[in-house]
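Hi support team,

I'm opening this ticket because the web form for multi-chain structure prediction keeps timing out on my end. I have pasted the exact lines I submitted so you can reproduce it. The total is 1263 residues across two entries, so I didn't expect it to be a heavy job. Is there a limit I'm missing, or should I split the entries? Thanks in advance, R.K.
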Amino acid sequence: MAEEDPAAAAAGSGSESEEGEDGERRHRQLLEAISALSGRKRRKLAERSEASGQVSEFNVTCKGAGEKLVLSELLQPIHPKSTLGSVRKELARVKRKAAVELPLSKEEAKRVVREAAYVTTSKDVGKWQQVVLQNRRAEQLVFPLRQDIATVTPLERVTSAWKARTPLEQEIFGLLHKTQQPVTDPLLTPEEMASVQAMSLEEARRRRAELQKARAVQSYYEAKARRAKRIKSKKYHRVLKKSRRRQALKEFEQLHKSDPAAALARLEELEQLRMQERMSLKHQNKGKWAKSRAIMAKYDLEARKAMQEQLARNKELMQKVRVEPPEEELCEVLEEDTTALPMPSGANPWMLGRPSGLAPEPEAQEGPRDDIVPGAVENKDKMEEEEEELSEEEALLQDFEQKRRERTGSPEGQGRDHGEELKAQSWVGWECWGLDKGRGIWGQFLADFTQLSLLSALWSDHFYPQQVGADETEIGAEQPRDSPVPPVCAEELVSAGLEPPPQAQEQLLLSEQPRRVRTMEDVENLAKDELVEEQEKLVVLRAGKQAQQQEEGRAGDRHTKKAPAKRKMISLEAVLDGKPQEMDCPSLPVVLEEEEGGIEQRGMITEAFAGDDVVADFRREKRKAEEAGKPQPVNLVLPGWGEWGGTGLKPSARKVKRFLIKPPPAPQRKDQHLPHVIMSEKRNIHAAAHQVSELPFPFERHQQFEQSMRTPVGPTWNTQRAFQKLTAPRVITRTGHIIQPISAEDVSDTAPGSEARLEGEAMPSRKAGPGKKAVSRGKAGPGKKAVSRGKAVPGQKAVSRGKAVPGAKAQPRRCRAQ
Amino acid sequence: MRVKVLSRNPDDYVRETKLDLQRVPRNYDPALHPFEVAREYVRALNATKLERVFAKPFLSSLDGHRDGVNCMAKHPKSLSTVLSGACDGEVKIWNLTKRQCIRTIQAHEGFVRGMCARFCGTSFFTVGDDKTIKQWKMESPEYGEEEEPVHTILGKTVYTGIDHHWKEPVFATCGHQVDIWDEQRTSPKCSLTWGFDSISSVKFNPIETYLLGSCASDRNIVLYDIRKSTPLKKVILNMRTNTLCWNPMEAFNFTAANEDYNLYTFDMRFLESPVMVHMDHVSAVLDVDYSPTGKEFVSASFDKSIRIFPVDKGHSREVYHTKRMQHVITVKWTSDNKYILCGSDEMNIRLWKANASEKLGVLAPREKAAMNYNQKLKEKFQFHPQIRRIAQHRHLPKSIYCQIKEQRIMREARRRKELNRRKHSKPGSVPFVPERKKHIVAVVK
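Hello R.K., no limit was hit. The queue was backed up. Here is the completed structure from your submission:
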């Protein structure tokens, strides 16, 4: 309770004087009691009574000591209100106020603290909820979560912080600056910088590759030269010498044209050489070797030849010197050109066949060869020189070419007479095909091919069986009949930049060779293409030969068109699903083949399996299965019931009709439309032992489960990449690595923004379900195969697959192939 | 004579660059590869069989202790080092690659009750029956130096367990109360009590490192927060919990090994019922340790076997036992998730593979791919009865086998009795109590 204010005390002084001392005492008691209620000691301040004139005996304050008491003041009416009023009020207020609660017991207090702490702590820990869920759902977890990569701070960064302080250091730095040496980041001189900038990584790589190649080529040629040096063959060396001589001559020619003065000097030099040679008396048949030859010459043809050569040389040297006219040589070279040049120029099927990417390589090799081997011969001459070593094929080619030249002289005579050269041609053609992968010439081939078939339209009756015949040599032998002029001619003309004459275009037909027939499909395609082209040819024939250009254009298109046609010949599904009779494999080539070689084989087969009609057996079996599957009518007829019975008596037709209960018709069989399959719909207990009887836990519907079973994961059915994805393990640990408990840093490492999740923010949780994998599976894998796979899942094939495996598991399917 | 040979076009099989995949001349048209389910089923069956054939988990046993192995500790920085304390007060440090004991210390008189390594791996702590806490250096002493602890703290009561904080120089001991110690001081920073009982084990949470779990012999599990130095909550189970272990990947989950043969995985935010009850042991479970990936844990039991449980499964995926292995007192899963160590009564520490049929050593890429494929197949066809039958087949010693059978009968009888009681009483008066709720007595706030 508050202490009594002096004003109130002053107010109460009047009444107290009337009530007397008794009242005052009571009042004091009351005050004390009240103050005791508040629990606080009453202040002594108001009670303090000091002897002073200002304090009266009756506790009347009189302001101003000398003031007089006025009677009127004393006569003032008595205060109607008791001074206890305020006290009473206080009392009421105190009563109204509830008592302060007792403090909690120790146990209780602790409990409160615990509860509060628990709430906050579990909230703290709850931050991890998202991370935990994410990790549980994750398709793959790699431990340790934090892959710390050791980083090496570059030297520049380390040194950049360092500054020169001492005078010596400063001096050194000054020097470095002067010479433009690098001081700080990056540690490169300006020249180095320039070079780095000049050469990109790509370029550097290319250059390095070039250098490597050059080095390889060099070593190769060195080795070759060494080998050549060791060759003992005289002939070889003779040829080599000759070629060198020719080379020198040629060079001299060049020099003569370009720089006559130098040529003169050179001539003099040559003259000197000749004179020396002449002086040496090497050719006078005086040497040891020459004498031995002379003895041998009687018996040895070779020795004689050598002798003659020697003599010739001698003669030549002994002749009066004059500058030789170069006509002969030139002529020779020219002749050689015509013979040898076409081969590298492109008509040679060997060269043609090479992929275009490889083509420049030999030429690139030619360069260094000339540089490195001092007396290296030029290309053409070399070809000529190595004629002896020419392969059989090339000899044939040349032979063939000669013939062609003859023929071009008389193009009219080309029609019928093809002797043994045909063989060669066909051979060339085959080689062409075999090697041909260069796409550039493909279109041309096709164009030629159309022309070829154009001609062949005239004799299609001959052409067909021969085309289709599987025997390689036969085709080879027959084809050139239609295309008598080899490809070489046209090629040569084109390469020479000449406009091919009209008849040359026809000759182009010759270069056309059929594609190689390796498999049955190829054969079938061939037949089909032939048919298509046949029709076109008739039109083309009418249009005339100027359609050539268009043909070429179209040929490219056809090439693209052919591919799908080739692919879609026999689809397994079509065969499985549909009627067997509609199998659309072109019968033509098959029949033809059998005509040729297959008759006796077929006979043999039929003989071997004489009593074994598999197809009929199967049909019978299926029919039986169908019959067995049909519901049987229930016969409730009781003979003798309601009529006479006995031996020889049959129940009446009426009875039979009445008591023979027909069952409802059976549901349609599943293999109704599958002629080659018998599907048993009975439950097979042997299979049941291997089957899942209940739906396993994570699956909700049996379709889901079946779907999960149906998609194979093996490399037999999936591309490499898809397989890897499908079989990726759930948890990957690295051997020898300690896996630390997860921490906030790991989370921020693994997924940016998950730190925020740790702070309690809600993030959309990652979806991960069985469906996800399926999708990725469809997409996975490069190229066509994966695409076809992806298509296969929702489309027909999936259905057919479902048919193949009716249960969730392997039910033995009875399947017979016809 | 011309010799004709078969020739192939290199374009069909030569890669353009070394980095390209090998070309597979293969048509993936599903129509050409029928019976995929059946074929994969056979492969899965074979894989499962092979898995069982190659399941040889036991690697070696480390012998040298002269009394039962009572506690073990992993070295936090070295995979090849493991520490063990025996019932005769001896502490041994082992090298796992050599499978040798590299150091022996007579650390205490009486049991070594608990041990733990400091997070940095430089020292370790042991507590023993002689009421002392001792800190030892991890390295062996120099020549001529005596084997002495770095610090020794003499306590008033017996300490039964110890665990070190994962990041700070703080450790916790348990005995009559849980004490939190600063490494630099000889008296605890604070003591946490909640009732008076002997506390058998105390473990720091490895993720939220201020959290502490303990289990006492009055059947309760108590969680503490050392930031506020207050207990948080207490859950009382039917029987005593021997030890607990926090999940190293999921901050709020821990697993308790109980005397009633079960293990309980709790979410500390919802202690009213465990997340999962793991039952397979046939005797008291004495120790539990999580795999570092947090997906599985291993438990050691008085029934002389150890079992591996997936965290989210009620039953074990693997059981390991040998003829000579007695009551397994302590078990640890190594930090690289590959091996399991268990210490048992008969003085041996055994080293097991965590994955029984795993091939150790470096695998070729093809081997790895085949392994992954087989794993996937096993996973895919795991529900098929034949495969499951093979995959689940384990050999058990007769004693465990009989006990399992016995307990199955007992459980069945109890179930039947409850069923009958329910049948013959007023509907609703005998409520269904889920298994998870059955073992919880109360949760005290």
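A quick check on our side: The radius of gyration of chain A is 58 Å. Let us know if the file doesn't open in your viewer.
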